[in-house]
């Protein structure tokens, strides 16, 4: 497994972050996003698989056990959107989400980006630690939002 931003404290505890998509537990990711997240409930599995295939993905592992996930939509030159970030319940309260975001924003392929973006309803405190803030000129941003239909 390729690890980035090796943090000795986590590595000594058996944790690793990897961008190797072959290690991802797609079933667990799908179940979490579809059933437990507030942002992706109702996502069709095929759509999630396409999103993963076309994104930079970060898996968090304890030994070989899947512990968390984040996806980055990026052109690797100017812009990145961080999404689908989660740590499974049994792995929370260990600092893994902070380590995951630190690893993402310091990843060699993402250095020097002009703009990072994300959306969150409840984790502003986590992202503030890495320089994220509310959009300063929201009048310039626009969106089309089409929520998934829950099953």
What is the compact description of this entry?
26% of the residues lie in helices and 23% in strands. It is built from 5 helices and 5 strands.
Keywords summarizing the entry:
151 residues; alpha+beta; Aminopeptidase; five-stranded mixed sheet; 5 strands; 26% helix; 23% strand; globular
What does this structure look like?
- The protein is of the alpha+beta class and 151 residues long.
- It has one domain (8-140): Aminopeptidase.
- It contains five helices and five strands.
- It has helices at 8-12, 26-35, 45-53, 96-105, 124-128; strands at 15-18, 56-62, 65-74, 79-87, 115-118.
- A five-stranded mixed β-sheet has the order 1-2-3-4-5, sandwiched between helices.
- Strand 3 (65-74) and strand 4 (79-87) form a beta hairpin.
- The chain is globular.
- The protein starts with 7 loop residues before the first helix and ends in a 23-residue tail after the last helix.
- 20% of the residues are buried.
- The model has no long low-confidence stretch (mean pLDDT 91).
* Overall outline: globular
What is the helix/strand order?
HEHHEEEHEH
Arithmetic mean pLDDT: 91
Biggest β-sheet strands, sense, barrel = 5 strands, mixed
* CATH homologous superfamily label: Gcn5-related N-acetyltransferase (GNAT)
Oligomer, anyone? single chain
Instruction: Give the strand order, joined by hyphens, for the main sheet.
Output: 1-2-3-4-5
Give the uncertain stretches in residue-range form. none
Rg computed from alpha carbons, rounded to a whole number of angstroms: 15 Å
Treating each run of at least 4 consecutive H or I residues as one helix, how many helices? 5
Alpha-beta classification:
alpha+beta
Distance between the termini: 36 Å
């Amino acid at each position: 497994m390729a690890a980035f931003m090796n943090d000795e404290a986590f590595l000594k505890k058996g944790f690793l972050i990897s961008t190797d998509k072959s290690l991802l537990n797609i079933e667990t990711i799908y179940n979490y996003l579809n059933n437990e997240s507030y942002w992706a409930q109702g996502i069709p599995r095929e759509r999630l698989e396409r999103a993963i295939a076309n994104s930079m993905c970060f898996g968090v592992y304890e030994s070989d056990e899947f512990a968390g996930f984040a996806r980055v939509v990026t052109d690797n030159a100017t812009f990145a959107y961080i999404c689908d970030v989660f740590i499974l319940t049994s792995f929370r309260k260990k600092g893994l989400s902070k380590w995951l975001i630190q690893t993402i924003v310091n990843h060699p392929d993402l250095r020097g980006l002009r703009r990072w973006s994300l959306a969150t309803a409840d984790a502003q405190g986590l992202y503030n630690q890495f320089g994220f803030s509310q959009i300063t000129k929201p009048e310039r941003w626009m969106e089309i939002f089409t929520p998934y239909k829950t099953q």
